[in-house]
């Protein structure tokens, strides 16, 4: 069995590292705060002082970090992964970060004869804990096949989308569709409510036709029942739409409704709702209309 | 069996009237152009010179007309339905028109002791021909129960959404969600293509998660395979979003992404694409980005 490393033991990373450990792998871990390191240490993980040390010890190094600058720093900053790498090792970045910069990172690692996969996930904390994450992978087929058994201890719906960056691209595409479908359901149910119809009956009438979606089913119901406890936090979806809009500018691409959805998230966050479930985006539309869905 | 009337024998109305006729009902019909009247006449329908005559002969009068002004004219114009009505009769408007004006029409008919149901459909020409339309109904429960067996000869997914206008409201909500989900899938697949990933693989990776929808499945594939033959024409979806935006202004309601979706339809129509399937909305995004999904 390959010796593994895991850097970033937050609400996603900690249970994921735990599954790799439970599968019997030797696991070297590093995290900014030490609580999670001690917790995994009690289950057999080996704590490292920094990312460089993890890279020295492990053959395959997993990252699960909040955002693009965090990944850049952990890979190429002082005492970072790059300083500890040697040819033949593999970096697997499961963070959700910029697809454009991911390609740059892969090129810089390739110069050191180190392979990289980008492998962002969807499914959230529950998916991480229950090991049924959706994993969208970018990189070489051979590297993907090598790491695949490890992905299978973390998730279920595992797809090699394309070369380096394609996993991050798929994740951004996913977050665009989810945000814009929430916005669509919000406009439709608010229209129904303000026109005097019962949004619950409208949702029911629409479920069997072309308006059908997981979002209408799950998030539509949350809007009607006013259950905005996360779920997936607006603050995190703002980060993802920022990735979409930043990459769109770099790629010369216009995403008009993604821009509007981000502004609506911003408006809910401005009102203190950044920690609410993303279905609470409807609150921004509701304030404009002085009327609520539920 | 009640004596029925049917006004408006277009690509939707003609097959619908045919199903009522085939179920054994006496059917009085009227249509602006006479071809469809003669066609149904050969199957036993009785042609009438105008809408007034249909209303004089029939107990339940169905309408299937293009837009709000057509319904207003046929109901209340010269030689219109209102002139032929008597207390106890029922008007069933299956056109897709303004929910706000529908409530007005119902009030004006109620003054004559005539009941009205609004009962717009989704499912298009194929649904009309195969009698599996989705029917969204507004009106009184007792009237709905009376007409329900007739709806069952026309469609399958039949819902009483609420009082007068609620059927039209549900239909508008449906068309908002469909248009905005097409837009969402368009932004996401174009993002993927421009970032260098394979949109077909991205679509596949996203189908199992929260981005899942009938639109991603059906219209996403059309965008990738460039099969923009209708389906549902942009020209008709423009009409429906116009209903949404007009009603939103009347109701003091802001629908930002519906407005953008309409502008994108307008742009495709300006380029000669009004008769294409509504999934061709992606072409407007593609022109802005000078790049295509497929």
Description:
Chain A has about 290 residues and is of the alpha/beta class. Chain A has 14 helices and 9 strands. In chain A, the strands form 2 sheets. Chain A has a 6-stranded parallel beta sheet, sandwiched between helices. The first copy, chain A, has a 3-stranded mixed beta sheet with strand order 7-8-9. In chain A, strand 5 (about 90-95), helix 6 (about 100-110) and strand 6 (about 115-120) form a beta-alpha-beta unit. The longest helix of chain A is centred in the middle third of the chain and has 29 residues, at about 165-195. Chain A starts with a strand and ends in a 5-residue tail after the last helix. The interface between A and B is large, with 73 and 74 residues.
Give average pLDDT of chain A, whole number.
97
The helix-strand sequence of chain A is: EHEHEHEHHEHEEHEHEHHHHHH
Helix content of chain A: 40-55%
Tell me which oligomeric state these chains represent: homodimer
C-alpha end-to-end distance of chain A: 54 Å
Poorly predicted parts of chain A = none
DSSP strand (E) fraction of chain A?
5-15%
Total count of strands of chain A: 9
* Estimated radius of gyration of chain A: 21 Å
Major sheet characteristics of chain A: 6 strands, parallel
Shape of chain A: elongated
DSSP helical segment count of chain A: 14
Spatial strand sequence of the major β-sheet of chain A: 3-2-1-4-5-6
* Structural category of chain A: alpha/beta
Q: Tell me which protein chains meet in the greatest interface and how many residues each side has.
A: A-B, 73 and 74 residues
């Amino acid at each position: 069995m390959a010796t593994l490393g895991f850097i970033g033991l937050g609400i996603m990373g900690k249970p994921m590292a735990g599954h790799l450990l439970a599968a019997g792998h030797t696991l070297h871990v590093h995290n900014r705060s030490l609580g999670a390191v001690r917790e995994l240490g009690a289950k057999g993980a080996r704590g490292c002082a920094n990312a460089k040390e993890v890279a020295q010890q492990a053959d395959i190094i997993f990252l699960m970090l909040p955002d693009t600058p965090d990944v850049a720093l952990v890979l190429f900053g002082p005492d970072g992964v790059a300083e500890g790498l040697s040819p033949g090792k593999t970096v697997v970045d499961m963070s959700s970060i910029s697809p454009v910069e991911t390609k740059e990172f892969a090129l810089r690692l390739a110069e050191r004869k180190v392979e990289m996969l980008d492998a962002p996930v969807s499914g959230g904390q529950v998916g991480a804990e229950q090991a049924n994450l959706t994993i969208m992978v970018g990189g070489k087929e051979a590297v993907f096949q090598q790491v695949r058994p490890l992905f299978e201890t973390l998730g279920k719906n595992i797809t090699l989308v394309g070369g380096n960056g394609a996993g991050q691209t798929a994740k951004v595409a996913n977050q665009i569709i989810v945000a814009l479908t929430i916005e669509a359901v919000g406009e439709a149910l608010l229209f129904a409510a303000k026109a005097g119809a019962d949004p619950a009956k409208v949702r029911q009438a629409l479920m069997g036709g072309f308006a059908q979606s997981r979002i209408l089913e799950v998030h539509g119901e949350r809007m009607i029942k006013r259950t905005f406890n996360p779920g997936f936090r607006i603050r995190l979806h703002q980060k993802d739409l920022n990735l979409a809009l930043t990459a769109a500018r770099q790629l010369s691409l216009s995403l008009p409704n993604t821009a509007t959805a981000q502004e609506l998230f911003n408006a809910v966050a401005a009102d203190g709702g950044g920690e609410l479930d993303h279905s609470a985006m409807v609150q921004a539309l509701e304030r404009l209309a002085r009327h609520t869905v539920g």
